[in-house]
Amino acid sequence: MSVDESQDSATGAPARRTGTAAGELEGLAEQSRALAAGSVTSTALVRRSLERIEATQGTVNAFRRVRPEAALTEAAEADRRLAAGERLPLLGVPVAVKDDTDVAGEPTAFGCAGEFPPKERDSEVVRRLRAAGAVIVGKTNACELGQWPFTEGPAFGNTCNPWNLAHTPGGSSGGSAAAVAAGLVAAALGTDGAGSVRIPAAWSHLVGIKPQRGRISTWPDPEAFQGITGIGPLARTVEDAALLLDVAAGNHAGDLHRPPAIAAHEAVRRDPGRLRIALSWKAATTFTRKPLHPDVRAAVTDVARTLVRLGHFVEEAEPDYGLVGLAFVPRATVGVGEWAARVPDRSLLDRRTRGSARLGRLLSGPVLRRARAAERRQQQRVGALFGPYDVLLTPTTATPPPRIGTLAKMSGWRTDQAMIAACPYAWPWNVLGWPGVSVPAGFSADGLPLGAQLLGPAHGEPRLISLAAQLEAELRWYEHRPPAHPARVDGAVVSRGE
């Protein structure tokens, strides 16, 4: 379904905006430039972000922890530094991180219920954000230990999709995606262990980058979830996502994976050249049904046609995934078990989490070692596609975003079945450790966001980012914003201002 000005009326479909009101600075790069020019203060931007967070907690519910006093203090310090002539990439810009990321003085509950002690130190990625001058306004909601493509749980309630509050924004980085889509922050970090940045990007009409494994440090963990999970940005534009990626990228001495540096932001304005692009509808083998929703197929087909118009060669071709799922399950479940062991009161964990942790204990040892040893062969098998082709194009998900509660109360087996059916395309790239970018691909007939996924071989972020930026210049997806939603304050319903 194309999205145009005819859908701007009160029909429930997305609105199109051709610009922002005077004084509105919605983009990460835009805010950084305005701060450096002295046309806005960090205190004003941070206060606006905090006010929007407060106004939408009763509806969108994007944040687990908010730092109003600390963030305003940091904003005042950023204003002092700016006035003194200091310039840094994000000096004074408000951003958010996910609830699995350590921020000094805040607990890291990762979607779990119970009392968690505050962390004494920032994680390496937060240290890098602060070194670039960013102000962290809070930590966003994530489902329990990042296991599912929804962001719901007894510890924090339901995080809702700003495009339609009856639907999920995805998961597990759903809080970060909802925060950006609703305009609470210009960009946020998430983590991606089976598509957990790309899935909410697709379902929230955002750009989401899963970088090369190790591109952004996971320290204090040498690696996360046995190497399948990485940290990545969510933003409305490719430029903003690339800027946040550059700021966050880098390694700690204790990291197990340390890829060579890239310049993501430079790639935004680089012509990708004429590329050979494989369009794939095939999902990796899981021995389960994975029907592709017709609206998703139509949207991704439209993206492919746009790529052809831009001069690229596109044809259908399928990667040879083999039985890559046999390597994913041990790594994922062992990772769940390792994280569950940190939880102060494990009796509060979801029954599905306890089941995954038990399975992880069974699959650790020899099974896990064999799964990890198979990675090189899997990279060679799938990587054969990148001889004749430069980029792989797939749907990001097989369906539009489900309604809130669709998966939350299922059994473990039924949750796995439903999750695989809705999101079969993202997780193999976590096993491979390679980069991928989800870009907005339009909307379903019901006005729900859909995404397309650009996938590449090892260290291929610059090409993917250049291609995504070229698509963005043609499709201008950032012009479409979700509707404003009423906010609940002390039991009363008030309008949330834009």
Automatic annotation (TrEMBL):
InterPro entries, sorted: Amidase, Amidase_CS, Amidase_dom, AS_sf
UniProt region (Disordered), positions on chain: 1-25
Amidase domain boundaries: 45-464
Molecular function GO labels: amidase activity
Keywords carried by this UniProt record: Hydrolase
Protein name: Amidase
Listed transmembrane segments: none
EC main group: hydrolase
E.C. no: 3.5.1.4
Domain of life from the UniProt record: Bacteria
Family recorded in the similarity comment: Belongs to the amidase family.
Low complexity bias locations: 10-23
